[in-house]
Amino acid sequence: MDDDDLHARLKAYEGCPAAVAGTGRDPVNVPMIRHWCEAMGDRNPAYTGLGAIAPPTMLQAWIMRGLGGLGGGDDPAAQATQGRAQAYDELLTLLDGAGCTAVVATDCEQEYLRPLRPGDEVAFDTVIESVSPRKTTKLGAGYFVTTRTDVRVAGTLVGTHRFRILKYAPAKRTSRPREHRPRPVVNRDNAGFWEGVRDRRFLIQRCADCDTLRFPWLPGCNACGAAEWDVVEAGGAGTVFSYVVMHHPPFPAFSPPYAVGLIELAEGVRVISDVVDVPYDKVRVGMPVELEFRTYDDELTLPVFRAREGAV
């Protein structure tokens, strides 16, 4: 089967269901909202107290199936409300048969129509929105598959979640020079931050109305919603709030195992970055760190963190 024939077969699944009549495992609830806000460091008062709403970016959290996968055990009726539709499984099987056996999530987009509130019971339907022509990437050649999930409460649309994956045939690895690190995605919202990095300054946004500091950079204040802002420069001191050790998968320009930290700066915001010059098994929650700007090649400088003297 050539690429054109395969793509024609894949496109026949556009508009077919990927999940039908799905339901959230739990109603929108205060404990989950609290856990989310604590993990994100989001202190917006709109998410606490009487009349609290759920953070909009939690939209997907209410419809995920959980670590156990299907929530219905051996009950076919329960599985039908939580599992994938046959058309989606057929699409993935077709791609597997074409050699596209690997998968990676690439991006998602969300639209919010009204806030979710504690007690709301969510329902959702998912369709296969599009399948791209064959694309060649550094990972390998394959197809981008986009699904669209419409989330409803009592029959009213409250949000839309688009999720895109790449199903691909892994490229054959050959010996080659060490690759450059991936470049950060720079857009109109965060360009000022990366301009600061080039000048070896770590800039944090500050709301012009309520003085709330925020990171990563956003187009509006997550505390009061104001659009105007200025910046303050971080002093560089921080602590490891949390961390993970990356073992797999291997990625060009990185040599696992290595530690990636969630660093809480002295100013109160948190940033994800490498913890460098420390053995991965010596990184600890609460470890004092300090900012360093490290140049990796002629074009790339990144903010990283190293243990403060005497911390290890």
Mean pLDDT: 89
Looking at CATH, the homologous superfamily of the largest domain is: Hotdog Thioesterase
Radius of gyration of CA atoms, rounded to a whole number: 22 Å
List the total number of helices: 5
Secondary structure topology:
Blueprint: H1 3-11, E1 17-23, H2 30-40, H3 76-82, H4 86-97, E2 102-112, E3 122-131, E4 135-136, E5 140-153, E6 156-170, H5 191-198, E7 203-207, E8 213-214, E9 229-233, E10 237-246, E11 258-265, E12 270-276, E13 288-295, E14 301-307
Parallel strand pairs: 12-14
Antiparallel strand pairs: 1-3, 2-6, 3-5, 4-5, 5-6, 7-8, 7-9, 10-11, 10-13, 11-12, 13-14
Task: Write a concise synopsis of the structure shown.
By secondary structure, the chain is α+β, with helices and mostly antiparallel strands. The protein contains five helices and 14 strands. The strands form three sheets. Strands 1, 2, 3, 4, 5 and 6 form a six-stranded antiparallel sheet that branches.
Can you characterise this structure?
With 312 residues, the protein is of the alpha+beta class. The chain folds into two domains: 3-170, Thiol Ester Dehydrase, Chain A (Roll); 191-307, OB fold (Dihydrolipoamide Acetyltransferase, E2P). It has five helices and 14 strands. The chain starts with a helix and ends in a 5-residue tail after the last strand. Mean pLDDT is 89; it is low at 70-81.
